[in-house]
Amino acid sequence: MKIDHSLPLEYSTDQNKLNILGFWIFLGAEIMLFATLFATYFTLVDRMGSGPAGADIFEITPVLIETLVLLTSSFTIGLGVHAMRLGRKNAMLTFFAITLLLGLTFLGVEIYEFTHYVHIGAGLQTSAFTAILLTTLGTHGAHVTLGLFWGLFIILQVKKRGLTPENANKSFIFSLYWHFLDVVWIFIFSFVYLKGMM
Amino acid sequence: MNFFDRFAIPHPSPAIYASMVAIGLTVIAIIVGLTYFKKWGYLWREWLTTVDHKRIGIMYLISALLMLFRGGVDALMMRAQTAVPENALLDAQHYNEVFTTHGVVMIIFMAMPFIYALMNFVVPLQIGARDVAFPRLNALSFWLFFMGAMLFNISFVIGGSPDAGWTSYFPLAGNDFSQSVGTNYYMLSIQIAGIGTLISGINFITTILKMRAPGMTLMKMPMFTWTAFITNAIVVFAFPVLTIALLLGTMDRLFGTNFFTTTNGGMDMLWANLFWVWGHPEVYILILPAFGIYSEVISTFSRRNLYGYKSMVASIVIISFFSFLVWTHHFFTMGQGPLTNSIFSITTMAIAIPTGIKIFNWLLTMWKGKIKFTVPMLYAVGFIPIFTIGGVTGVMLGMASADYQYHNTMFLVAHFHYTIIPGVVFAMLAGLTYWWPKMFGFMLNERIGKWAFWFIAISFNVTFFPMFFTGLDGQARRMYTYSEATGFGPLNLISFVGAVGLAIGFALIVYNVYYSTRYASRNISSDPWDARSLEWATHSPVPSYNFAVTPKVNSIEAFWDAKKKNIPLFQGKIDKIHMPNNTGVPFIMSCIFFVWGFSFVFSLWIPAIITTIGIFVCMAHRSFEKDDGYYISVKDVEDTEKKLRGVS
Amino acid sequence: MKMKWAFLSLIAICLFTLTGCEPLMVLDPKGPQAETQANVIWISIATMAFIVIVVFALLIFVVTKYRASKQSDDYEPPHIEGHPIVESIIVGIPVVIIIFLSIVTVKSTYEVEATPKGYEDQKPLTIYASSSDWKWHFSYPEENIETVNYLYIPTDRPLEFKLYSYGPITSFWIPQLGGQKYAMSDMVTTLHLAASVPGEFMGRNANFSGKGFAENTFQVKAMPQKEFDEWVEEVKATAEPLTEEKFKELLEPGHLGQLTFSGTHLTFLPAPEGEYGGHHHGSNDSHEGSKHDHDEQALNKQDSHEKTKEHHH
Question: Considering only CB atoms, which chain A residues are within 8 Å of C289?
Answer without folding.
Answer: none
